[in-house]
């Protein structure tokens, strides 16, 4: 077993789930700040969760097309290790956010077909990490967290990317080992694949996901 695949468990809303993510060996935990999401948390709850996060578990705030007013309030209220930009932020806006808030920034790129891969080269110069996720269906309420996978074969022949990247989209304890094998991902991100219903995490699945990611 290799321990070199880092796991992010996203959409946590209870202290027990944060602790379970750490106990399972996750490297990152994610808090969602998007009102339409069943995983949305308030600044107050996120502050409590992030303040009690075990050492070694990086705290990631997932935001969608945020303005500076919101980001000012977020970064004042919640201790964070990374911002995840999961909307239609332009490369210029990503660079602006990175410079203004002095936090590592991970930019999500939605992939449905080979033509979507070009965006990776546009964003790599301005972010710290890339999150390669399934593109949401047309008209979806959520730009991510839909439990949809994309064709992993699209990543099999990729050229070198200049930033660390995470694989996301429809990952579960049952498919994560194959996803890692087929894409060569060294980091993976999961949300709905560890839930009993939208927003309700099942922490009994966390360990098997982490172990299978590293298998
Ligand atoms: O999880 C959400 O509710 C969410 C809302 C808005 C943008 C992104 C969201 N989740 C992210 O989507 C991917 C894939 O999630 P899933 O495993 O397919 O459910 C992941 O990066 C989440 O962080």
List the helices and strands and how they pair.
Blueprint: E1 6-10, H1 15-24, E2 28-33, H2 43-51, E3 58-63, H3 68-77, E4 82-85, H4 91-101, E5 105-111, H5 118-123, E6 129-134, H6 153-156, E7 165-167, H7 176-183, E8 187-190, E9 195-197, E10 200-201, H8 206-213
Parallel strand pairs: 1-2, 1-8, 2-3, 3-4, 4-5, 5-6, 6-7
Antiparallel strand pairs: 9-10
Helix pairs in contact: 1-8
The site of the ligand O=C(O)c1ccccc1N[C@@H]1O[C@H](COP(=O)(O)O)[C@@H](O)[C@H]1O has 28 residues, from strand 2, strand 6 and strand 8.
Bound molecule types: the ligand O=C(O)c1ccccc1N[C@@H]1O[C@H](COP(=O)(O)O)[C@@H](O)[C@H]1O
Principal-axes shape call: globular
Average pLDDT works out at 95
Secondary-structure element order, N to C: EHEHEHEHEHEHEHEEEH
Structure description:
Pathway: Amino-acid biosynthesis; L-tryptophan biosynthesis; L-tryptophan from chorismate: step 3/5. Belongs to the TrpF family. It is a single chain. The chain contains eight helices and ten strands. The protein is α/β, with parallel strands linked by helices and about 220 residues long. It has one domain: Aldolase class I (TIM Barrel, Alpha-Beta Barrel), CATH 3.20.20. Helix 1 (about 15-25) packs parallel to helix 8 (about 205-215). The protein is globular. The termini are close together. The mean pLDDT is about 95. Bound molecules: the ligand O=C(O)c1ccccc1N[C@@H]1O[C@H](COP(=O)(O)O)[C@@H](O)[C@H]1O. The ligand O=C(O)c1ccccc1N[C@@H]1O[C@H](COP(=O)(O)O)[C@@H](O)[C@H]1O binds next to strand 2, strand 6 and strand 8.
